[in-house]
Amino acid sequence: MISAVGGVGWAVDGALDVVEAELDAGGNLPRIPPLSASLGLEAEAGRFSGRIGANWADAQTDVAAFELPTDSYVTLDARVTYAATDNVDLILSGSNLTDEEVRLHTSPLKDLAPMPGRNVRVALRARF
């Protein structure tokens, strides 16, 4: 945790991914991921913890022969966890809360079907 304020522990994380690739003879390789970044904020207080995170991917226009470009996107994810016991957690999470159309440039199915849209799940996690 980065800091504790009023009994709440806070943490921030982030990532930046850059891939540059081309053929020795010139031209682009297929399915090279675009520039992307993520940023997240976590908090923990007693038996509760939560996280909110954003993921961004730039458009990929450096494409190989017979490959289509992909658009940029931003998604927002959130999660709240309640530790019912030392071994049991109740989790409420949401992914792609902004319901963006996401097509991963690295997927061979990107031109046929996008990634799932907005989704919410409730889970019970037990450790034994």
Summarize this structure as a short list of keywords or feature phrases.
128 residues; mainly beta; seven-stranded antiparallel beta sheet; 0% helix
Description:
The protein has one domain. The protein has no helices and seven strands. The protein is an all-beta fold. The chain has strands spanning 3-5, 8-17, 36-45, 48-57, 73-83, 88-95, 119-126. A seven-stranded antiparallel beta sheet has the order 1-2-3-4-5-6-7, with no helix packed on it. The model has no long low-confidence stretch (mean pLDDT 94). The chain starts with a strand and ends with a strand.
Number of domains: 1
Helix run count: 0
Uncertain segments are none
Q: Based on the structure, what is the oligomeric state of the protein chains?
A: single chain
Query: What spatial form do the alpha-carbon principal axes imply?
Result: elongated
Structural class: mainly beta
Topology:
Blueprint (H helix, E strand, L loop, with lengths): L2 E3 L2 E10 L18 E10 L2 E10 L15 E11 L4 E8 L23 E8 L2
Antiparallel strand pairs: 1-2, 2-3, 3-4, 4-5, 5-6, 6-7
